[in-house]
Amino acid sequence: MKLVHQFIQGKQKSLVFQGAPGTGKSHLFRCAAREMKQQTIEYEENGKKWTVPITVLLLKIPELMKTIQRTFGSGRKDGLTEAKILDAITKVDVLILDEIGGERSKSDPNGFESWSGDIHYQILDHRQGGRKLYNLNYDSKSVKSKYGEVQGKRILSRMMFEAKHHHVVGPDHRIIGLK
Ligand SMILES: Nc1ncnc2c1ncn2[C@@H]1O[C@H](COP(=O)(O)OP(=O)(O)OP(=O)(O)O)[C@@H](O)[C@H]1O
Ligand SMILES: [Mg+2]
């Protein structure tokens, strides 16, 4: 909570939380999104200054992957494309990615989830310089076995760029009391 607080105040550029299910990662990130939507930034265009609300995008990776999949094939009525989604992800002031690596996608002949690995790579590569909050259940070894050694390393490297990492430990609050 302390780290997320520092992030909201602009004292941390980016955070990566790694930890078991039910430890409160998404809960904290949702709180951060709600807080940050109330912040503003100065924006200058053609010599004019504007004060605008900052843009915050919170995405759950498994849902994002499904949305991107649904843009394939015949044209959608709403005109949504993979390129438009990736463009929005790149442009927002704050990107919050919940459940990195949480999707289940089809494995390639080598047993790696290369399609979703490529999408992760693209998103993380584009966001390297920006402010972001990322969380995941997986450790580095699992990320590499999911996407392949080389692609896994590239993903982890970009995920961690300018970010402070924190390992979240604690009970699974969803199952407290379960015998
Ligand atoms: N420290 C806490 N005290 C009380 N309730 C908590 C705490 N942490 C989480 N919870 C509650 O437990 C539930 C699960 O939390 P959350 O969804 O944030 O977990 P998570 O770490 O994102 O899990 P997952 O990795 O499975 O997505 C939520 O209802 C949340 O409000
Ligand atoms: Mg979560």
Automatic annotation (TrEMBL):
This is AAA+ ATPase domain-containing protein. It comes from Pontibacillus salipaludis. SUPFAM superfamilies: P-loop containing nucleoside triphosphate hydrolases. The lineage of its organism: Bacteria, Bacillati, Bacillota, Bacilli, Bacillales. InterPro entries: P-loop_NTPase (IPR027417).
